[in-house]
Structure formats: C-alpha cells, structure tokens
Write a structure and sequence with these properties.
It is a single chain. By secondary structure, the chain is mainly alpha-helical. The chain has two domains: 35 residues, no CATH class; 98 residues. It contains eleven helices and no strands. The longest helix is centred in the C-terminal third of the chain and has 16 residues. It is elongated, with a radius of gyration of 21 Å. 16% of the residues are buried.
C-alpha cells in the first residue's frame, strides 16, 4: 500500500463501521505506518510444519513429487506452495543443473540453464537456488561461496539491473566458485 492509501485506511480504522472486522495481513511490518500499527492488534502466524504441508500439497494441490528442497522453499506457507506449483518442472531442472555444475563446461552450463532466465518468476527461482545450494553446502563447503552471488544478483535485479547480464554473471560466478581449478589454471 502506498502512504496515501494507508492514510485513507487510517480514517476507517479510527471510526470503523459497527458490522466490520478489519484484518490486515502483511509480510513486512516495517512497511506499515506507525499510526496504523498503533490501532491494530498484532497476531503472528507460525509456519506450517513440513510434514503437514507435504501432505496438504500432495492431497490438495496436486503435487506429484515434492523434493526436500522444494518443501523447504515453501517456507511453511500454503500460499507459497500454491504459487510455486505451476513452475514445479523448473525446480527439477534447476536441481539437474546444480548437480552437473561441477563437471560441466561453462558454455554447456549457460546453454542448459535456460529455465533460470524467467523474468516473471526469477525471485522464486533464486529462492529455490538458495535452498538447493545451501543443502549442497552441507556436503561440500565450496557451495557456501555461491550464496553470496545469489544475494548480490537479487540486490541488482531489485535495483533494475540488466536481467540477462545479471543471470549470466550469476551462473558464471557459481561455476567459477565450484570449478576453481578449471578457471585459474
């Protein structure tokens, strides 16, 4: 909501209709004006446990397979599970890309990574890559260095950096981090 819209809402909160119960939902409390927060009661929602979310996604959302990384990307939210459903196949492709990244040539990586070049869903894709790489970092500490590249890419994309160039740069940096011997020789 813009500041102006929040100020309009403030009038309603100060003099609410008798028949109304107003519920505000926000993922970022810092974006809400203090004058609105002072007139509301805060209720925090806990994440849904993974086993419950897994069952729900299988039974109600039509997921055929849910990898551990995809379940972690849901972050305890049915809403996130719903929004990620339509691109489920992309996340399987990303898993394949990351599993071959240490043995693949850089040109093959760039050629085979077309699923990452999805402007509309890039923030979900980068979230999934973060979860996947963090999972791989448990076995191989070199993957930890890749997390900073995802974070930097997110920041540049939010600042309206060139999309294709940023994704190319991300993939090249991850490849270099994991293939240190290849590119430094």
């Amino acid at each position: 909501m813009t500041r102006e819209a929040q100020n309009c809402l403030l009038k309603t909160l100060e003099e609410p209709p008798e028949f109304a119960c107003i519920i505000l939902v926000s993922s970022n409390e810092n974006m809400i004006l203090n004058t609105i927060k002072s007139r509301c009661m805060k209720v925090k929602f806990r994440n849904i446990e993974n086993n419950i979310l897994y069952q729900y996604a299988k039974e109600n959302l039509g997921y055929n397979e849910i990898s551990e990384n995809l379940l972690k990307t849901f972050d305890g939210s049915i809403g996130k599970a719903i929004s990620l459903k339509e691109n489920q196949y992309k996340y399987a492709e990303i898993e394949q890309i990351l599993s071959k990244i240490e043995t693949e040539e850089v040109t093959e990586l760039l050629t085979n990574s077309k699923c990452i070049y999805d402007k509309e869903n890039i923030f979900d894709i980068l979230d999934y890559m973060t979860v996947s790489i963090y999972s791989k970092a448990r076995e191989n500490k070199r993957y930890l260095g890749c997390l900073k590249y995802i974070s930097e890419t997110l920041a540049r994309l939010k600042a309206n950096g060139n999309f294709d160039m940023n994704i190319d740069f991300l993939l090249l940096n991850i490849w270099e981090e994991l293939n240190e011997k290849s590119y430094r020789s």
